[in-house]
């Protein structure tokens, strides 16, 4: 298909539509509002549903309702809105309902700023809400991936009965790049658990309250087994020049592109540096990092935050080699700045 | 030389960021003049919303607090309960008050919190680029009602003044407009009455101010005033909906 | 990666700054380049300034962001005030002298001046300013060749009336001539 110039937010929305999403529930918040606006334009023409909810809290509960019918539904917001959704996400995760939640991230905490950031990593991967649960988290780094990952998210959500989050920095939502559209999805799996009217079957119940302590433990184990299965099968990362690398940089999303440019510059100076770009933030690509830790001498986590993903890098490296950190928040580091940091590190360590 | 007009003490010298033709400027001035005339500047604590007036803490010259979207009445409650002698006022837009903050405003009014709310209604979300508000009129085009607001999809606009007037805890509820000089004068009188209601301890007060958003309505400032008069006032009638005397 | 060029467009909201950037982006895409377009957004837009950054490269674009563009197209004075210091050393600056009249602070930049609003008025088409500026820029800097841009006019202005496309083409050609004769 021909390439089309699209804004990140719109490409994501288009990906969702291509994947058969039939409803969007959300509330405007910079820098994600274009997703809501795109759906408001398209759904009336396609016969789908657009609702501007009264708040992000109401929106996630609308998603809870929509998802429980078996339909592909989604919401989109930014950090402060995702915070509001936390209770709902915990409920959806326990009820094992598939859905897409989008965080076009901005600086925090509090009202923060509207510049892109990666400081919602813990919120996304550590649950955010209460209880022992996880959601899958995907981190695109290009407008094409915004479209592709929206489609992947719905497939993964349906396959594992789990909420899937796409977390993309504000810049990615706002920028335009050429995109190749994808073919419409026409085949969807059966959802016998859905609450959509019990004609011809025993009634289904969607609930998350389990007063029996034994049953609650059992439920948590059921969820735990699901998460183990996902961890075993769905870790995803991209690598760049890691085979002979002494220093391996770990960065995701927009930051990974800036780091890649920096690495190309640093390689010209003779230092052996590589990049691991996590694509799934949960499950974190521990295997890839563990493998790299066999031969690398040091890891460097680079994030647009005060350092959150670095925790997962350290866990995966498991003390084998040192893990350093470089990050900015509010300001986005330039490739030159990152290259400078890498060279400083490389020279200090003698790589 | 006799001074015939001056910047109110309760406004700072800061240059505002509002768009040309925005009525926030007028409303800020009215609030500030009332505070000055009641000699309350040092006794006042204001809470600003998430919306175009999110930076109002740079423009009002008294203690100011920034609230999360919609939560200003709850924050105001926290302050007024601890410092009942102070004048506590919130300044909120349609998204802040009538959408995400609906629970907070209804309950602050139901509890009869002795706070004053200035509610700026311009039927649209300005700061985020022109999305539909709970106050957007039927048929009105916004970025999330691109074909005009349809009652089948998005229901009807909400009349907040009438709604809150039904609560016993509400002591003074009014609706005014700032689309012409006569209305601006009436608006100021109403805002002052609301503040006096608070200082007399009579209960919850709110002034809904019908305002314009030329940028997101796609109109020049003068046409925007006309649009307000022809479209908003018929649906949102001006007047006082609740008055509790001492 | 050295083929990567970054062009900043800056002016006031309503001057068509974002559209100018989009034109260049579409032209570059049509010419088979990798390209990205990044606008200022959100509350930054209230109060009236607008800017966008266009990145054009033969290879995969590593970073659509920069604090220091190699080239800046400045349409009004507040934009010059904001961005003059940020342009890369020895970078290129194109100024709309109809709305900018102060002397520059930097002396290392390659500067091209053009009074686009005036030329547009002389043409009898005050909306033509942006296309005149684009024609002149592309003629001089060859960020995307003028031939490639002209070839893709129909695609870039898809959906617009023929008369609109013609008017824009005319303005674009006027810009090309200006650059040929003056820069």
Keywords:
A: 351 residues, alpha/beta, Rossmann fold, 2 domains, 7-stranded mixed sheet, 5-stranded mixed sheet, 19% strand, globular, B: alpha/beta, 36% helix
Describe this structure in words.
The complex is a heterotrimer of chains A (351), B (246) and C (183). Chain A is built from 12 helices and 14 strands. Chain A is α/β, with parallel strands linked by helices. Chain A folds into 2 domains: 230 residues, Rossmann fold (3-Layer(aba) Sandwich); 113 residues, Rossmann fold. In chain A, the strands form 3 sheets. A 7-stranded mixed β-sheet of chain A has the order 3-2-4-5-7-6-12, sandwiched between helices. A 5-stranded mixed β-sheet of chain A has the order 9-11-10-13-14, with helices on both faces. In chain A, helix 3 runs parallel beside helix 4. Chain A is globular, with a radius of gyration of 21 Å. Chain B has one domain: 3-Layer(aba) Sandwich (Rossmann fold), CATH 3.40.50.970. Chain B contains 9 helices and 7 strands; from the N terminus they run H-E-E-H-E-H-H-E-H-H-E-H-E-H-H-E. The mean pLDDT of chain B is 96. Chains A and C meet through helix 7, strand 8 and helix 9 of A and helix 1 and strand 2 of C.
Brief overview, please?
Chain A has 12 helices and 14 strands. Chain A has 351 residues and is an alpha/beta fold.
Compile the SSE list and pairings:
The complex is a heterotrimer of chains A (351), B (246) and C (183).
Chain A: E1 4-7, H1 8-18, E2 23-26, H2 33-46, E3 49-52, H3 56-68, E4 73-77, H4 79-95, E5 99-105, H5 121-125, E6 136-138, H6 143-160, E7 163-169, H7 170-174, E8 176-179, H8 213-233, E9 237-240, E10 247-250, H9 253-268, E11 273-278, E12 280-282, H10 286-295, E13 298-303, H11 309-317, E14 323-327, H12 335-349
Helix pairs in contact in A: 1-2, 1-6, 3-4, 9-12, 10-11
Chain B: H1 24-37, E1 44-48, E2 63-66, H2 72-82, E3 87-93, H3 94-100, H4 102-110, E4 116-121, H5 151-154, H6 160-165, E5 170-177, H7 181-199, E6 204-210, H8 214-217, H9 221-235, E7 239-243
Helix pairs in contact in B: 1-7, 3-4
Chain C: E1 5-12, H1 17-30, E2 34-39, E3 49-57, E4 71-74, H2 77-83, E5 92-96, E6 110-114, H3 116-123, H4 129-141, H5 146-151, H6 153-156, H7 162-182
Parallel strand pairs in C: 1-4, 4-5, 5-6
Antiparallel strand pairs in C: 1-3, 2-3
């Amino acid at each position: 298909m021909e390439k089309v110039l699209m804004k990140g937010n719109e490409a994501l929305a288009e990906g969702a539509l291509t994947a058969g999403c039939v409803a969007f529930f959300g509330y405007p918040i910079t820098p994600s509002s274009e997703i809501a606006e795109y759906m408001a334009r398209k759904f009336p023409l396609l016969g789908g549903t657009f609702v501007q909810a009264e708040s992000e809290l109401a929106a996630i509960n609308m998603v809870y309702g929509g998802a429980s019918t078996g339909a592909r539904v989604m919401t989109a917001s930014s950090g402060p809105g995702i915070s509001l959704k936390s209770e709902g996400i915990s409920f959806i995760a326990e009820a094992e309902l598939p859905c897409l939640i989008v965080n076009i991230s901005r600086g925090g905490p509090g009202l923060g700023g509207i510049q892109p950031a990666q400081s919602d990593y813990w919120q996304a991967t550590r649950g955010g809400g209460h209880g022992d649960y996880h959601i899958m988290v995907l981190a695109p780094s290009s407008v094409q991936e915004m479209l592709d990952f929206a489609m992947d998210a719905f497939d993964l959500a349906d396959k594992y009965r789990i909420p899937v989050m796409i977390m993309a920095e504000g810049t990615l939502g706002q920028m335009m790049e050429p995109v190749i559209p994808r073919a419409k999805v026409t085949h969807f799996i059966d959802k016998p658990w859905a609450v959509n009217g019990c004609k011809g079957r025993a009634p289904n119940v969607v609930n998350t309250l389990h007063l029996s302590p034994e049953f609650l433990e059992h439920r948590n184990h059921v969820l735990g087994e699901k998460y183990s299965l996902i961890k075993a099968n769905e870790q995803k990362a991209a690598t760049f020049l890691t085979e002979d690398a002494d220093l391996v940089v770990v960065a995701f999303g927009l930051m990974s592109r800036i780091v890649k440019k920096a690495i190309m510059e640093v390689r010209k100076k003779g230092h052996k540096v590589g990049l691991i770009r996590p694509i799934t933030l949960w499950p974190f690509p521990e295997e890839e990092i563990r493998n790299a830790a066999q031969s690398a001498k040091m890891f460097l986590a680079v994030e647009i935050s005060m350092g959150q993903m670095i925790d997962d890098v350290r866990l995966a490296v498991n003390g084998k080699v040192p893990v350093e950190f470089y990050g900015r928040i509010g300001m986005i580091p330039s490739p030159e700045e990152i290259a400078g940091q890498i060279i400083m590190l490389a020279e200090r360590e003698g790589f | 030389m006799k001074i015939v007009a001056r910047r109110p003490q309760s406004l700072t010298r800061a240059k505002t960021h509002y768009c040309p033709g925005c009525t926030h400027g007028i409303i800020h001035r009215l609030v500030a003049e009332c505070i000055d005339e009641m000699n309350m500047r040092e006794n006042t604590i204001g809470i600003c919303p998430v919306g175009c007036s999110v930076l109002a803490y740079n423009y009002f010259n008294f203690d100011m607090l920034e609230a999360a979207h919609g939560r200003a009445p709850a924050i105001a409650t926290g302050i007024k309960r601890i410092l009942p002698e102070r004048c506590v006022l919130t300044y909120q837009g349609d998204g802040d008050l009538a959408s995400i903050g609906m629970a907070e405003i209804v309950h602050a009014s139901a509890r009869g919190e002795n706070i004053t709310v200035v509610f700026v209604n311009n039927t649209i979300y300005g700061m985020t680029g022109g999305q539909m508000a709970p106050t957007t009129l039927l048929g009105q085009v916004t970025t999330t009602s691109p074909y005009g607001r349809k009652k089948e999809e998005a229901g009807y606009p909400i009349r907040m003044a009438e709604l809150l007037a039904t609560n016993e805890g509400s002591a003074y509820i009014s609706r005014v407009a700032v689309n012409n000089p006569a209305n601006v004068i009436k608006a100021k009188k109403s805002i002052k009455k609301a503040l006096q209601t608070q200082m007399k301890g009579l209960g919850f007060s709110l002034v809904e101010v019908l305002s314009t958003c030329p940028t997101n309505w796609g109109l020049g400032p003068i046409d925007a005033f006309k649009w307000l008069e022809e479209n908003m006032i018929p649906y949102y009638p001006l007047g006082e909906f609740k008055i509790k005397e001492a | 990666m050295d083929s990567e060029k970054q062009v900043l467009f800056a002016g006031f909201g309503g001057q068509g700054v974002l559209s100018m950037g989009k034109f260049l982006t579409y032209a570059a895409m049509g010419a088979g380049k990798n390209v990205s377009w990044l606008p200022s957004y959100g509350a930054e837009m209230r109060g009236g300034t607008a800017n966008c950054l266009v990145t054009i490269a033969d290879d995969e674009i590593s970073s659509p962001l920069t604090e220091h563009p190699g080239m800046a197209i400045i349409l009004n004075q507040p934009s010059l005030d904001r961005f003059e210091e940020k342009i890369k050393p020895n970078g290129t600056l194109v100024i709309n002298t109809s709305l900018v009249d102060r002397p520059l602070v930097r002396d290392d930049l390659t500067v091209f001046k053009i009074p686009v609003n005036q030329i547009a008025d002389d043409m009898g088409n005050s909306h033509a300013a942006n296309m005149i500026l684009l024609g002149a820029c592309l003629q001089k800097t060859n960020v995307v060749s003028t031939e490639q841009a002209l070839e893709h006019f129909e695609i870039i202005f898809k959906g617009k009336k023929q008369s609109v496309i013609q008017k824009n083409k005319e303005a674009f050609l006027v810009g090309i001539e200006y650059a040929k004769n003056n820069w």
